[in-house]
Design goal:
Elements lengths: L2 H16 L16 E3 L2 E9 L9 E3 L10 E7 L4 E8 L6 E7 L40 E2 L6 E7 L10 E5 L16 E6 L6
Parallel strand pairs: 2-3
Antiparallel strand pairs: 1-2, 2-4, 3-10, 4-5, 5-8, 6-7, 6-9, 9-10
């Protein structure tokens, strides 16, 4: 499936979940590549290598799994019922990736994005307690790519992001674990995309 058609299908699925009318698309150029229409956030990007002088919106830390030039889109509708969608194209084929909303912005290293965003914060970090590290208290967006490296995932939670609390989506090397002592873990951080999911 070609990239524009793939992301159109993803957007239509997102709008169906949100139950709102269509939002206008944004182009991948400075000042216009993030569209925010009321509570709708649309962030399309292309994965690049880290550049400290001009930090990319989406950065890959493992070009073998997330190649430079692969595409990503994050869509979100915030409110008492928050929907987050993740669409990718051009990643490693037929592979299951973990993906989650993280607290901080992307940086030169995957660790720069900080821990997962949690609606109710675990007092013990890193959080591996399934009481806190679960898809109801965090935003989990695990996905499995097809032969073209394309996939779409959606998450729905019954809360909104706190101001200043959520700034990125990180893609990990494997599916997210849920057992006690491993909950929320998904291996190495392969890539990151900056998304303004919370105000401030």
């Amino acid at each position: 499936m070609r990239r524009p058609v793939f992301f159109l299908v993803a957007a239509l699925g997102f709008l169906f979940l949100v139950g709102s009318g269509p939002a206008s698309a944004a182009t991948d150029t400075p000042a216009t590549n993030i569209s925010r229409i009321k509570n709708i956030i649309i962030t399309p990007a292309v994965f690049r290598a880290w550049n400290a002088e001009r930090p990319p919106r989406a950065v890959t830390y493992d070009p073998g799994m997330v190649p430079v030039g692969a595409a990503v889109g994050v869509l979100a509708s915030r409110g008492p019922r928050t929907v987050v969608g993740l669409a990718v194209h051009g990643l490693a084929p037929t592979h299951t990736f973990g993906a989650h909303v993280h607290q901080k912005a992307c940086g030169a290293s995957g660790a720069d994005a900080g821990p997962h965003y949690q609606n109710v914060s675990d007092p013990t970090q890193p959080s591996v307690d399934p009481t806190f590290a679960n898809p109801r208290n965090e935003v989990w967006l695990d996905l499995t790519t097809d032969a073209a490296g394309s996939a779409v995932a959606f998450a729905v939670v019954n809360w909104d992001f706190r101001p200043g609390g959520a700034h990125s989506v990180v893609i990990h090397e494997h599916a997210t674990a849920s057992a006690a002592g491993q909950a929320g873990m998904a291996g190495d951080r392969l890539a990151c995309v900056n998304v303004p999911l919370s105000d401030g």
